[in-house]
Amino acid sequence: MAVQDWLLDSDPSIRWQVMRDLTNEPADVVAAERAKVATEGCGARLLALLRWWEESRRTVSSAAGTASSG
Fold this sequence. Notes:
mainly alpha
């Protein structure tokens, strides 16, 4: 298997960049692949963790505000 094939067979966060830089894929195809980063693979997991982190921070801030106002 060639390196380019291996990279294309990976996560969308890598695949769209390989498509953009190393293949002759049209821009709309690359854009569609890039859009997958938010919903599939490592990018989706990272975004989910960031949402969890933000919600946790808000919950702690709310609890701290409630506790100090009482």
